[in-house]
Queue: 3 jobs
Job 1
Amino acid sequence: MGETFDLGKYRDHVQKMAMEHLSAAKVPEGLTQMIKMAAEVAEGELEIHREGGEHIACRAGCGTCCALNVAVLFPEVLNIVEFVRTRMSPEEQQGIERRVAELFSLVECLGEEDRISLGQSCAFLDESGSCSIYPVRPLICRAVTSINASHCEEALQAATTGVDRPIFMNMFQKSLMEGTFIAVAEGLTQLGFDDRSGQLTAGVRRLLDMPELAERFLERKNVWSEQTMEE
Ligand code: SF4
C-alpha cells in the first residue's frame, strides 16, 4: 500500500462533506448527489491506496456473493432507483421491478442463513452475472472482495449448514467502504434525517411502490417500515 491512510480523518472528512450536501438538499436530487459524492471520494481513495494491496479475484460475471442481504441507507436507495429510471429502457425497468417484487416476497422475512440457503441472486444481477447497477451499487457491495473466488463458493455452501468459513479479502477496501457508509449515516444523524439502514431489496421495493418517500425523507420523517429494517 502507498501512503499511510488515517481512517478516522477520512470519516470526518466524508461526514463533513455529506452534511454540506445534505444541508443544501431541497429536492431528492440533492440527496443522490450526496451519495454519489461519497462513493466517488471512496473510490478515489481506493485508487490512490490500491498499489501493493492483495490480489482481488472479483470479476464481472462471478456474482457468487450477490445472494446475501445488503444493508443500504435510504439515499443509496434513491440513487439506485434514479439510475433505474433514467438509465434503463422501459423493458429493463419492468424486468427490474418484477424481479425486485418476486425477490422481496421470498426474502422479506428471512435471516442471513436462510437468505443464503435460498440461493436466489440479487434482483440487480443480470444474466451474465454482472451488476446491472454497477455505477450506483451500494457501499456495502463495494466493501466485499475476495482473494480467491472458490473460497466464496465454499463459504456460502458452509453457511447453509451453519458453519463459518473465512473469506480472505482486501481489508483496506472493506474498512474504507464501511467507513464511508458510517460517515454518511453519522451525517444523516447530525442533521435529523432517518439514518437507519434497511435491506436493498426491501428499500427499492418500497421506493418503487411509494415515490413520495423521497419527499418524506427530506422532511426528516421515517421512511423504513419496521419489517424492512436491518437487524
Ligand atoms: S447490487 Fe450489484 S453488487 Fe450488490 S448484491 Fe446486487 S448485483 Fe451484487
Job 2
Amino acid sequence: MTHKDVDWKLGLIDLDGTLYRGGRPIPGSAEFVVRLRERGIQPVFFTNNATRTPIAVVQHLERMGVEAFPHEVVTSAQASASRIGPSAADGYVLYIGEAGIHEALREEGHQPLSVRHPKVRERLNRVKAAVLGLDSQVNYAELALFCQKTAELGAFILTNADVQLPAEEGFLPGNGAIGAFVETASRVRPYVAGKPNPDFAGYALSRFGICREDAFVVGDNPETDIRCGRLFGLYSILVETGVAEAARRAANGELDDEPDEVVGSVGDLF
Ligand SMILES: [Mg+2]
C-alpha cells in the first residue's frame, strides 16, 4: 500500500524541511498543495514553530509560492493555549514568546502577560498558568522571573521541545534548550504541547472534525513528525528534504519510529 491507495480527507503537513528550507521553497511544494486541493484533501500546515501567528505563516508560505489560509495553520502555540483550562479565566497566563503565543492565548480567551510587560511584577500574583515558547530576545531577568513563577505554580507548558533550529551557520538553540534551562532551575517538568505529542495531532484533527483514519502526516523529522503521527495512529510519510541524516537512518530502520512510507520530497506525493 502507498499513500495513493487511500481517499484521504486531510493531510497534516510539516513546514520547515518539508515545504521549504528557511527562505527557499522545496521544488514541487506549491504544486503538491495544489494537487491536494484538487483531490479534495484539506491541507493543514502543522508546525511546532510557535513564534509566528497564522497570518504570518500564511505570508511566509505565500513568499514560497504556496497558497494557504490562516484557518489552515495549526501551531504548537495554539495547542498550548488550548491546553490551559478555564481556571485561568480570571487571571493571567504568563508567557515567554513572540506574537504567535500572544495571539493564540487571546484567541482562546486567556489574558496573556508577557514577562516583558512593564506591570508584570504587580500582576504576578494573578498568574494562573505559564507558557514558554521561543523568544530570540529573552534575557536572564525574564527567565529568572519565569522560573520563579513556574516553581510556585508547579507546572508550565513548553510549546515545543525542538533542541536545535537549522540556520545559515549550522544551528541555533531551539525552544527545547530554553525549556531545559527552566526545567533545571524550577525543578518542574513541562507539558510539551508540540510534536511528537500525539495530542497535538488530535487537536489539529478536532479543529476540522476529521478522524485519524482519514488523515496522514508528512514531515522531514522522524523524532517529531513521524513519532507524532505513529503515536496518534496516522499514516506517516517521511520526506528526505530536511533533517537528511535522521531521514536516512529511519529509512535504514535504525530509528524506533519508522514511517509508513519514505519519499524524496513532497513533489513525489500524489
Ligand atoms: Mg520540519
Job 3
Amino acid sequence: MSSDALAVYLAAQGFEKELADELCRKGVSIKASKERLFLASGLTDSVWAQNIWLEPSFTPVRSVGEAVRTLKSVQRNWKAHPVGFYRRAAVIESQLPPVKARPLRFGEPAPVSPLGAWTLWDHDLLLASPKCSSAFPDGEVRFEEDRLNPPSRAYLKLWEAFTLAGCFPAAGELCLDMGAAPGGWTWVLARLGASVFSIDKSPLAPNVASMHGVDACLGSGFGLEPETAGRVDWFFSDMACYPERLLTVVQKWLDAGAAKNFVCTIKLQGETRHDIVEAFSGLPGSKVIHLFCNKHELTWINLEKWRLNCL
Ligand SMILES: C[S@@+](CC[C@H](N)C(=O)[O-])C[C@H]1O[C@@H](n2cnc3c(N)ncnc32)[C@H](O)[C@@H]1O
C-alpha cells in the first residue's frame, strides 16, 4: 500500500459499509465520503471498490467552461460520477466528448483505452482522476445478454470473471462445476467446448443437461474427494454454502494439486465476515473481487498462470 497517496474508492452498489470497513482494516484513512465515493489517503487493492480513482486531484473551477477546459486539457475520455450539483455536472458532461459504453459481446476483450473519472466535489471544486483501476465506466461490466438460452442469469458472473481475468477454459479442458443447477455456468463452459462435470442436489435444465460435453451428477459437492475425482483443469463453485465450508473444500483441492484454476462464488450472509474474505485473498495467486453482477457475494479467482507469475 502506498501510505499517503490520495485515492478515491467507488463502493460497489449497496456495499459502502463493507468498503469502509475494508479500508479501515487495511489502514487506509478515509478523509471524506459522498454517496458511494470515498476520498482516502492510501492506495490499496480493494475487494469492495468497483473502481478506484488512482490519481485524483482537486482543481478549483469558477465556471462550467473552466471545468470542461480543465478536463479536456488532460485527456479525451472522462466518466462523470456526480455526487451533488447534478445539473451543473450534467452541463459539464454534455460539453465533453461522449464516452461510448457499448455492452461487450462475450469473448471481446476488456477495453484498454484510459478512462478518467470526475465529480464536482463542491460547486466550484472539480475532483478528477485521469487514471482508474477499471477501464469500464464506473467499473460496470455490461454484456449483450442472452435472454434465451441460459437457464439463469448466473452465466453473467462467469462472462465477467473470464473477461476481467483475460482467460477462460479452452475447448476440451475438464471443468468441475459445483452447485451447477439450473445450469448457467455449465452452459457457458459447454459453449466454450469444455468437458463439464456438473454436481448439484437439483437437476440441470434439460437444454443444458443435453449439451455436448456435459455430464451431470445429482448430489453434494462436499462429498467429492479430489483423490477419487482426479485432476481437473478448472474448479468452479457457485454452491449456496457458508464461506468457511467453501474455503475448506478449495483448500483441500489446492493441497491435493487437483485443480489448475479456480473460480468460486463466496456467498456472504448477514454481517460480512472480513476475516474469511482475507483468508481467500491470502491464498497464493488469488484475487477476490466483487463483480458488477455479484450481489452479497464475492468471486474468488485463482489461476495457474497467476500462481506461476507469483513464484
Ligand atoms: C446460485 S445457485 C447456482 C447457479 C448456477 N451456478 C447457475 O449458473 O445456474 C446455487 C446452487 O447451489 C446448490 N447447492 C447448495 N448446496 C450444495 C451442495 N452441498 N452441493 C451441490 N450443490 C449445492 C443449490 O442446489 C443451487 O442450485
